[in-house]
Amino acid sequence: MENSANMDALADVLKAVRLSANTYFCTDFNAPWGMEIEESKQGVFHVVVEGACWLKLAKADEPIQLDTGDIVAFPTGGAHWISDTPNSPKLPGSNVVENILNGNNPFQLKEEEAHSSNTLLCGSFRYDSSMDHPFVKDLPCFIHISASESPENNWLKSLVTVLAAESRQSSPGSTVMVDRLTEVLFIQLMRAYIKSAPNNMGYIAALADHQIGSALNLIHSESKAYWSVERLSEAVALSRTAFTLKFSKMVGMPPKTYLINWRMQRAKAQLETSNMPMINVAENAGYSSEAAFSKAFKLFFEQPPGQVRRNA
């Protein structure tokens, strides 16, 4: 039996969907300021490093106030605006980012002209949204981590402090460090969201469930095709029927389907990133012959494994 004690299904999935992230800027805005962010295919986040401001979701009736330390994220790239007051004029967010990266902050006044200000840290999250995985489908539209309501999240505050400091300087390696810290920020935001998920269904909630989360960790821990529905149900102390029903309800597909899908995704990654012999890739995915594996792989990805390897 595989040793799964240290496996983290969330980390494994994030690696599979090719999570990448970067911070656009950490800078000061002098009032009045505002940004209108359009709907996007990539996630967006804002951290209020200093001061207070307002944010409104595109489909919300009323704006919400954000205070120092608050973090908001739109993992699916939802439209919204953010500004110092609800009535402040707002510039297109893409224009603001472009100007700041070019050294021309549109909301920064001369020192003698400046009055109330905010410090904002903004950036984006990207992942392969075309991947057919329930994690991508069940990403929340909006996450709000309130500093006043989450005093226990000291690790998140420390991460933001380091990220803000690194974003403001151009030391050797800062760009790489900022990108990696931003990826960690996304993971920590997802962990915080999982703990406070408003419902008990969906893949995000499944990760936190004692039985289904354990089963997902076991599936993601195998390097060869070891687990079956029977073995998984025994491992989490449920009957096969009860396990299949609960897994299907939370994850959105039967455990056998999830197993097959995940093994295919892992096989594709092995073909793209290693020189592992085809027969070994096939056996790791649960097939005893290259022919059977090739047929199933082509049916799943609409291209043969050899072509995937050549393209990579």
UniProtKB/TrEMBL annotation:
PROSITE patterns: HTH_ARAC_FAMILY_1 (PS00041), HTH_ARAC_FAMILY_2 (PS01124). Keywords: DNA-binding, Transcription, Transcription regulation. SUPFAM superfamilies: Homeodomain-like. InterPro entries: AraC_lig, AraC_XylS_family_regulators, Homeodomain-like_sf, HTH_AraC, HTH_AraC-typ_CS. SMART domains: HTH_ARAC. This is AraC family transcriptional regulator. Residues 213-311 form the HTH araC/xylS-type domain. Pfam families: Cupin_6 (PF12852), HTH_18 (PF12833).
